[in-house]
């Protein structure tokens, strides 16, 4: 296919779907990287390297640098099954427990061997998790603590897979990499601390090679650490999250409670409703780069509120005046279907992934037709735009959006409303940084 005629479906899923899981080189540190998205498989099904049963043989900690996990060393590929890794974690100098990691030696022998070697040699001891995103992943293992560090042994050949058993779901361990080079992983890894749409696009693109099978409270403590912006994204831990030790242990890993799921999901976090539908009229403190002071934005919003009191329809006002992107072209985008924090629309997630896969297949077929000169470039562009439009229709009218896509101030107002009631989301640099938003709950 002519690369100049290549299009992609644009998924209007949260910012976290577009986040990079990259271990950047100094040259590509500011690159936006790859675009993360998931449907979790049944975590109770057997996976490569997973121990079964309650009776476990004694655990033997392997002395440092005695085994030879290097390629061609004393430990062959088949013997990799005999080992797992335990990470001891501290947060702000306080011990918060351990993560027991089962490694998928059969599916990812190169990556498994590399991880065992680095752990055995003490490479990870004292390194940090420098990137934390509560609803996505925690990333660590960088010797420079900033995402630019590399292993002394160079890059790894990727071991990606579309097999459901290696999907990126809660607790799965996978390799971070730099930019778009699929073979650029070396020492940095990440652990998924949720499973949802943000993880779908990782499958088949990142080398998953194991899973946390014990230590959920530790993983939750890590994922819940407060973060600040590093200039590119809000993921920099405010306190040190440190790998106290990474030890190689001979024998099957002690498996905790299964299936492994993020605790507290499907429980509304203190709000009186588990989901709401609200209409929104937005007045930003800046529009298309043009400054608008907070006082000017408030005055404009006050005028709209008066019109609402006099009987004006909020949706009609939103269609004419809202600063929300795309509202003038499609009023429905001023309607938000929101899940409360901790609530997951699993059926909707599955339906959305199925739809996404169907649209991608149709786009792939159109690409093949273009390459075979069965259709022209103009027709291909038309098909691509039509598929994007179809997806947009679904996302704006059917999909329930997770709470993490909205500022806290927005959520507090939206979930505090009764049906038919209106409320104002006040501008706040941290809680509602966009500007002022007038909400009306419709359902």
Give a verbal description of the structure:
- The protein has two domains: 3-250, Beta Barrel (Cyclophilin); 275-345 and 400-441, Chitinase A, domain 3, CATH 3.10.50.40.
- With 443 residues, the chain is an alpha+beta fold.
- Helices cover 22% and strands 21% of the residues.
- The chain has a nine-stranded antiparallel sheet with strand order 1-11-2-3-8-6-7-5-4. A four-stranded antiparallel sheet has the order 15-12-17-16, sandwiched between helices.
- Residues 1-20, 24-58 and 326-332 have low confidence and may be disordered.
Mean pLDDT: 79
Q: The biggest beta sheet, please?
A: 9 strands, antiparallel
CATH topology group of the largest domain? Cyclophilin
Overall structural domain count: 2
Strand order of the largest sheet: 1-11-2-3-8-6-7-5-4
Termini gap: 47 Å
Number of helices: 7
| Superfamily (CATH H level) name of the largest domain | Cyclophilin-like
Which CATH class of the largest domain?
Mainly Beta
**What's the CATH architecture name of the largest domain?**
Beta Barrel
Write down the secondary-structure element order: EEEHEEEEEHEEEEEEHHEHHHEE
Which structural class fits the helix and strand makeup?
alpha+beta
Shape: globular
Strand-residue proportion: 15-25%
Write a compact overview of the structure shown.
The protein has 443 residues and is an alpha+beta fold. The chain contains 7 helices and 17 strands.
């Amino acid at each position: 296919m002519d690369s100049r005629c290549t299009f992609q479906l644009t998924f209007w899923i949260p910012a976290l779907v577009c986040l990079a899981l990259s271990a950047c080189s100094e040259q590509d540190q500011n690159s936006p990287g790859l675009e993360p998205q998931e449907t979790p498989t049944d975590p109770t099904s057997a996976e490569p390297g997973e121990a079964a049963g309650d009776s476990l043989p004694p655990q033997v900690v392997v002395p440092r640098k005695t085994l030879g996990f290097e390629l061609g060393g004393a430990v062959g590929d088949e013997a990799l099954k005999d080992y797992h890794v335990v990470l001891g974690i501290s947060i702000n100098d306080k011990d918060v427990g351990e993560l027991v990691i089962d490694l998928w030696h059969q599916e990812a022998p190169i990556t498994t061997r590399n991880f065992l070697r680095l752990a055995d040699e003490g490479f990870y001891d004292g390194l940090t998790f420098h990137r934390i995103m509560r609803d996505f992943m925690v990333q660590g293992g960088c010797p420079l603590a900033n995402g630019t560090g590399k292993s002394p042994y160079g890059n790894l050949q990727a071991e990606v897979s579309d097999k459901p058993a290696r999907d990126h779901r809660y607790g799965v361990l996978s390799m971070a990499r730099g930019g778009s080079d699929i073979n650029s992983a070396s020492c940095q890894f990440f652990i998924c601390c949720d499973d949802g749409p943000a993880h779908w696009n990782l499958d088949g693109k990142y080398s998953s090679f194991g899973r946390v099978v014990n230590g959920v409270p530790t993983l939750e403590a890590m994922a819940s650490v407060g973060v600040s912006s590093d200039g590119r994204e809000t993921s920099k831990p405010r306190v040190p999250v440190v790998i106290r030790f990474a030890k190689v242990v001979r024998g099957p890993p002690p498996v905790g409670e299964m299936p492994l799921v993020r605790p507290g999901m499907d429980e509304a976090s203190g709000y009186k409703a588990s989901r709401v539908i609200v209409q929104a009229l937005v007045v930003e403190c800046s529009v298309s780069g043009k400054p608008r002071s907070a006082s000017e934005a408030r005055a404009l919003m006050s005028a709209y509120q008066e019109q609402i009191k006099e009987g004006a329809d909020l949706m009609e006002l939103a269609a004419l005046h809202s600063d929300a992107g795309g509202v003038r072209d499609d009023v429905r985008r001023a309607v938000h279907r929101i899940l409360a924090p901790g609530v997951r629309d699993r059926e909707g997630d599955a339906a959305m992934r199925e739809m996404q896969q169907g649209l991608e297949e149709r786009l792939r077929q159109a690409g093949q037709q273009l390459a075979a000169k069965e259709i022209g470039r103009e027709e291909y562009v038309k098909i691509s735009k039509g598929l994007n439009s179809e997806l947009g229709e679904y996302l704006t009218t059917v999909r329930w959006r997770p709470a993490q896509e909205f500022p806290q101030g927005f959520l507090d107002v939206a979930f505090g409303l009764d049906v038919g009631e209106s409320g104002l989301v006040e501008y706040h640099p941290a809680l509602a940084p966009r500007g002022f938003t007038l909400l009306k709950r419709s359902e």
